Amino acid sequence: MAGCDTKKKAKKDGGGSAGKPGAGGRRGRGKDRAAAERQEPSPGLRELLRVPGGVPVDLTAYDTRATPGGPGAPKDKAAALKAVARSAERLAGLQERLYAGSTTGDRRRVLLVLQGTDTSGKGGTIKHVIRLFDPSGCRVRAFKTPTPQERRHDFLWRVRRALPEPGEIGIFDRSHYEDVLIARVRHLAPHRELGHRYERINRFEQELADDGVTLVKVFLHLGHEEQRARLLARLDNPDKHWKFSTADLDERALWADYRAAYELALRRCSTPAAPWYLVPADRKWYRNWAISTLLLEHLEALAPTYPAGDFDVEKCRKRLLEEA
């Protein structure tokens, strides 16, 4: 997967914080920490995590514990948390300018699409993203099993109804990709129909891009063993039982089938207008930092600005000052 620097290294943790101190001892580690605090988020994470379309994808070749482009030297949780905190104000300001532009006809908006297996962190990511923005400017939608009404319509119908309005940031927990993922694994549609859906999804996303939607499609790449650990943690905590379902175990038994379905979707639907980004998801701190950085890079590329007022500032000021 050229352009996605998450391939497995000799070290199991793929570049985590573990490692021996350098020759500088404590003094060297102090310099490392200082450098980590000064380091800004990577300006090229979009290129680093982008999945090139049209080429075979082998997910087994990518380390789910990797931290490509992560902040810090070494890359670690503390540095990532500081980096996210530093970027929060910038993200909020960009969101406000994006919304302000919509009041004068700017149709641009952002749609974050989150896909991944159970426990990969879609819900946790949404909580993290919402904290960085004004919630009133965010539109969140979780796509579950289609309702009887939704089944009476085309598979894109419910997605179109949930799209963000101009100036908004939309977040999808699952999406239209369920109709080429679970539908393929569970044989819910004829094979020929599934083949047409990839083409329809590409046309749909191109239409969105042409209408001012910036799509940020993220595949949360979770490891098989990490998923088991997270499911066991839910079983061990009665307060988390509501998040557990025996259906999760049924889906887990189809791990290889889902991996193949994701590989096909990533290959066929990563386009210039709507590329996929592969984010290793075993480390929650890295996942949150990476998605925050991806959003920051996309918003900075949009460069929204506050619209100019259509009134005479000085005349308005004079009226206010002359009030009795």
Give the end-to-end Cα distance, rounded to a whole number of Å. 70 Å
Total number of helical segments? 13
* CATH-derived architecture: 3-Layer(aba) Sandwich
CA-atom Rg in angstroms: 22 Å
Q: What integer is the average pLDDT? A: 88
> Regions with pLDDT < 50 over 5+ consecutive residues?
9-43
Q: Give the beta-strand count.
A: 6
- Under CATH, the topology can be stated as Rossmann fold
Following the backbone from N to C, one meets helices and strands in this order, namely HHEHEHEHHEHHEHHHEHH
Strand content: 5-15%
Number of domains: 1
Q: What is the assigned CATH homologous superfamily?
A: P-loop containing nucleotide triphosphate hydrolases
Oligomeric state of the chains present here: single chain
The chain-level structural class is alpha/beta
**So what's the CATH class?**
Alpha Beta
Tags for this model:
10% strand; 6-stranded mixed beta sheet; Rossmann fold; alpha/beta; 324 residues
